[in-house]
Design a protein that fits this description.
The strands form two sheets. The protein has a five-stranded parallel sheet with strand order 2-3-4-5-6. The protein is built from twelve helices and eight strands. The protein is about 45% helix and about 10% strand. It is globular. The chain has two domains: about 230 residues, TIM Barrel (Alpha-Beta Barrel); about 45 residues, no CATH class. The protein has about 300 residues and is α/β, with parallel strands linked by helices. Strand 5, helix 7 and strand 6 form a beta-alpha-beta unit. Helix 2 packs parallel to helix 4, helix 4 runs parallel beside helix 5 and helix 7 runs parallel beside helix 8.
Length: about 300
């Protein structure tokens, strides 16, 4: 049932709820959700927390993931996902949208929008998807200053520091950066674009007791691993950032091709979500019942007396 019409609206801040999930022994699975509908479907499938990918979000807007969007645009997506699902959300904060003061503004804006956590990366603008080549890295001191600024600005938000250094500086360089970010106050570390199980294990071995996030994106540099395999390698969170968007985009492309070819959707009906299924997912009838319960007209009986 959508949280707008439910009796169990979250009373605890999203950051507190996200942190509590991280303290459980099992790996926290965070499917990518690029909009409110995806968030509802992930919640129905049984997930307890969600992820908002900058790559999926910008692609859904018809833009590349090159750091060209604004904090307010990201907050629009955070708000709809948090409102639709009621679940704590880890949001992609890219490079923090500037330097320390900009990072503080982003943290406050994301938290106000309903995010439970944010990750910030140590790339320079124009940033790239972490699985592409020739990324330019920030000075680790400057990145640590951003992490410290994020920690200073947050109320409950979980701060995850992402390092893209493994490709150019190796595991040792990535670990050195991660330790600096932890010293600045990061709650967790996200080593991006590790290319085999040995690298994942080596990074985790070098950071005992640290909450680590693994990225299981398709068509990148990381081979396929399951959540349980990441957990066995020492990771506490795993994201599938763009998977839902990839599936949705393929389905839409198939629909448009059929519509152009056939002059109608008659050959695609079996692949469509029905009206009843859509209404059930978004809680249409619950909203309708709520509306009816609060808008009954009361006709005034005469003039009030002074």
């Amino acid at each position: 049932m959508p949280y707008l019409v439910a009796a169990d609206l979250p009373a605890v801040p999203a950051g507190v709820r996200f942190r509590a999930l991280l303290e459980r022994p099992a790996i926290l699975q965070l499917p990518g959700t690029q909009n409110g509908m995806a968030a509802l479907q992930a919640r129905t499938a049984g997930f307890e927390a969600l992820y908002l990918s900058g790559a999926a979000m910008t692609a859904s807007m018809g833009l590349p993931d090159l750091g060209v969007i604004t904090v307010d645009e990201v907050c629009f997506f955070i708000r709809q996902i948090a409102r639709a699902s009621g679940l704590p959300l880890l949001a992609d904060g890219d490079t923090g949208y500037g330097e320390a003061l900009n990072v503080m503004h982003m943290v406050r804006a994301f938290e106000d929008a309903g995010a439970g956590g944010v990750h910030i990366e140590d790339q320079l603008l124009p940033k790239k998807c972490g699985h592409l080549n020739n990324k330019k890295l920030a000075d680790p001191h400057d990145m640590a200053a951003k992490v410290a600024a994020a920690v200073k600005a947050r109320r409950h938000l979980v701060i995850v520091a992402r390092t893209d250094a493994a490709e150019s500086e190796g595991i040792d360089g990535a670990v050195a950066r991660a330790k600096r970010y932890l010293a600045a106050g990061a709650d967790a570390i996200f080593p991006e674009a590790l290319v085999n199980a040995e690298m994942f294990r080596a990074f985790a071995k070098a950071m005992p007791g640290v909450k680590l996030l693994a990225n299981m994106t398709e068509f990148g540099q990381t081979p396929f691993f399951t959540a349980s395999e990441f957990e066995a390698m020492g990771y506490r969170m795993v994201i599938w950032p763009v998977s839902s968007l990839r599936v949705a985009n393929r389905a839409q492309a198939k629909l448009y091709a059929a519509l152009k070819r056939d002059g109608g959707t008659q050959n695609m009906l079996a692949e469509m979500q029905t009206r009843a299924e859509l209404y059930d997912t978004i809680g249409y009838h619950q909203y309708e019942a709520l509306d009816a319960s609060i808008v009954a007209t009361i006709v005034p009986q005469g003039m009030p007396q002074r």
